[in-house]
Design goal:
The chain is of the alpha+beta class and 445 residues long. The protein has a single domain, classed as Cytochrome P450 (Cytochrome p450, Orthogonal Bundle). 46% of the residues lie in helices and 9% in strands. The chain has a five-stranded mixed β-sheet with strand order 1-2-8-5-3. It has a three-stranded antiparallel β-sheet with strand order 4-12-9. Bound molecules: protoporphyrin IX containing FE. Protoporphyrin IX containing FE binds next to helix 12 and helix 16. Protoporphyrin IX containing FE (HEM) binds next to helix 12 and helix 16.
């Protein structure tokens, strides 16, 4: 393998447009698939000015991005479209709430994600992974996007959401993307001023099977946990009395499920391309006591989040007339934070497209200013440490006694809502006792 990393070593990524897009494509893209209209030179630029007056400004410079997200001077916030989208997924729950209501809900749930609590859940995460992967087929390829669902469901059930039935993990992992895509789809009618109820009716909110199943599941857990012992200190116990419980349970599912599942899927895909890292993680897992930290697996988790950030774009909009990166913004104008481009930015990273987990080693000296998989500022992902630990444990436990190989054509990457593979990530997962050499021997017999 080349030290510099040749082209064949580069994992696939979303192809940004090399040529200027037509105005109609641009307008459609801005609303429905923002990454599709970001110019290819963004990996080398700190800003891409709006293509039309009042259009979105794309930003990648870490200091500017942090200023926007920190929102020190109340210059940036959410516009109407973003508020509507958040309301559809979260109702009046945490991520949709604002001001004092948001602060109160955030404080209430914070204890569930404290570092000491997260450290204690490691064993539950290990157990969840071991049980779920025992069900994985070994004689046919798996679709990681589907099979990781039960692991994440079991991890949530073993920690902050004990009422979730891990057996529904596969179904939930298929329902969530449909639910989120439906809730975040925007059309021109969304720009017309009309009561939100009418808009919901027109869009058919609540009519898809996936949405109905998700809402029923959240409502059933909320009903069951409307009262009961508080000493459990899990999510429903902490959130009860602080915001609407069913809304929060519903919102926490896409926030806590799809993002983590995507990250584990990409981590496995990268490990499949790098057997040398599988070996290192395997040795680390076998030498580690249950519940112990796995630093190498952590580095792989972080590098996977860099190359394939589950939340590829964050959006804020100007609240008042303001100026950033020499560009004047009008109230309501969108600042698009291109996390996926920051994570591979030519001016921020050495060998930006290459899988180099060692850049996250504590003594590597890597500047991590441009690493923002969990956002920044007051809305920073409340579960950042929890999620990193989930990914670390899952990757480590999966390769402990199994060998992962990529299967089929290279995935086609989409950045629509989450960074995902359009047709899933197909992998061959073999128990270590069946070495690839044995398999080839069997096939030729
Ligand atoms: C790899 C996994 C994850 C990634 C990449 C991720 C990413 C993010 C990002 C980027 C934000 C900030 C969005 C913004 O500022 O506009 C966010 C917020 C949030 N995340 Fe995560 N997340 C992950 C896992 C989780 C998990 C496991 C949970 C819960 C169990 C969770 C719960 C939340 C909540 C509640 C918020 C909103 C916080 C607020 O508004 O105060 N996330 N996440």
């Amino acid at each position: 393998m080349s030290i510099q990393g040749d082209k064949s070593e580069r994992p696939p990524f979303f192809k940004l447009s090399e040529t200027p897009v037509r105005l109609t494509t641009y307008l459609r893209g801005v609303v429905s698939d923002p990454a599709s209209v970001i110019p290819a030179d963004i990996y080398d630029q700190w800003v891409a000015p709006p293509k039309i007056p009042g259009g979105p400004l794309v930003i990648t410079r870490p200091e500017t991005v942090r200023d926007i997200l920190r929102d020190k001077d109340a210059r940036f916030g959410r516009n109407k479209q973003l508020r509507t989208m958040m309301r559809r997924v979260w109702g009046k729950g945490l991520a949709a709430a604002e001001g004092d209501d948001w602060a109160q809900q955030r404080r209430a749930v914070a204890p569930a994600f404290r570092p000491d609590r997260v450290a204690k859940t490691r064993r539950a995460f290990e157990q969840a992974t071991r049980t779920a992967i025992d069900q994985w087929p070994t004689d046919q390829p798996i679709d990681a996007d589907v099979e990781i669902g039960p692991i994440v469901a079991a991890m949530l059930a073993g920690s902050i959401l004990p009422d979730l039935d891990p057996a529904r993990g596969r179904e939930i992992s298929q329902d969530i993307p449909k639910f989120v895509e439906d809730m975040t789809r925007f059309g021109l009618l969304d720009l017309v001023p009309m009561p939100e109820k009418w808009l919901d009716w027109y869009r058919g909110t609540g009519r898809t099977k996936a949405e109905q199943r998700m809402r029923q599941l959240a409502a059933a857990i909320a009903d069951k946990r409307a009262s009961g012992p508080d000493e459990l200190a899990d999510l429903p116990a902490l959130m009860r009395g602080h915001g609407p419980l069913a809304d929060n349970i519903l919102g926490f599912m896409p926030a806590g499920f799809e993002t983590t599942a995507r990250a584990i899927g990409w981590g496995l895909f990268l490990l499949a391309r790098h057997p040398e890292w599988q070996e290192r993680l395997r040795a680390e897992a076998r030498a580690s006591a249950d519940g112990a930290e796995r630093p190498l697996a952590r580095q792989v988790a972080q590098e996977s989040l860099r190359l394939y950030p589950p939340a590829p774009i964050m959006v804020r909009s100007a609240i008042c007339k303001t100026e950033i990166e020499g560009q004047r913004l009008k109230p309501g104008q969108v600042a698009m934070i291109a996390v996926f481009a920051m994570h591979r930015h030519r001016r921020l990273w050495d060998q930006p497209d290459m899988f180099r987990p060692e850049r996250f080693a504590p003594d590597s000296g890597t500047n991590l200013d441009g690493f923002l998989p969990f956002g920044s500022g007051p809305r920073l992902c409340i579960a950042a440490q929890f999620a990193l630990t989930e990914i670390e444990v899952a990757l480590s436990e999966i390769v402990r006694n199994r060998q992962i190989e990529a299967f089929g054509p290279e995935p086609e990457v989409s950045l629509k809502i989450t960074t995902h593979a359009v047709n899933g990530i197909k992998l061959l997962v073999r128990p270590m006792s069946t070495s690839p050499a044995d398999m080839i021997l069997k096939e030729t017999q």
